[in-house]
Amino acid sequence: MSYKRNAYATPRLIKHDGTLLNLDIDLFYNSMINFTAYIEKFYSSELDLARILGMRNLSATIGELFVKSMQDVFDGILIKNPHQDGYPDLLLMDDYGRQIYDELLKNNKLQEKAPFSPFAAGGIEVKATCGSIPDQKKCNKMNISRPDIGDQRIFVLKGYDWKAHHRQTNNLIGIVWDFIDGLPTITSLQYSNKLTTDHWGKIVQPRTGGGRTTSVSIMTRAGVAEMYRGWLFVLDDSKYINFFNTYNNGNLM
Q1: Of the segments 45-59, 92-106, 133-147, which one has the largest average pLDDT value?
Q2: What is the pLDDT at residue 215?
Q3: Is residue 159 within 8 Å of 227, Cβ to Cβ?
Q4: N- to C-terminal Cα separation, the chain
Q5: Which of 46, 106, 143, 152 has its CA 20 to 30 A from that of 5?
Q6: What is the CA radius of gyration of the chain?
Q7: What is the pLDDT of residue 213?
Q8: Residue 233's closest CA among 191, 199, 182?
């Protein structure tokens, strides 16, 4: 896949003390290459990963694979949060972060949630979305087929956002993906260190008897616009470039 790069982007991570850490944008590109290799390895078997997981679980898996890819590429600068419910997803291993982590390791506390939710030294959150498409009823009215699992979605994509379990999410890598030739493919990588609680909607609590859905906050359109302004890479394909620009009333890509 060929990607268009934002020549003006310099991703910066806001550290625990408010100072900024410049991150090499090439490492984000290498993380995408690493991610693609993982996806191809998964799909080299005869298992239909997407259909086995379902769309919701697949999108979460894509986020986790990208976390793994970034950990590989950033080589000790960022490491995966050891607690599955912790945040951020990738922990910053500067001097302060390493000191905290080593102390927790020494005291056999890497399995505890509290030190990693949140991690005091901060880091990077990673979230993935494949966007939203019309429901079956609307597709019928439009006389089009609703994309199935594995089908490319860009032709009927209505919009996109990201979801979080709290409204403090910042230093966020936002992945937008689609099926291309049947494979989950990153179509845009966006980043912002400027997100505030106003960029996240009111937390929606699960309904009584409503299954195992957890509380969730949906990014607002203002948040999506902020992420768009921080785009790093977009698939070098006019369909996707035009979609992101049109949806955000801009021409940054």
Answers
A1: 92-106
A2: 82
A3: no
A4: 17
A5: 152
A6: 18
A7: 55
A8: 191
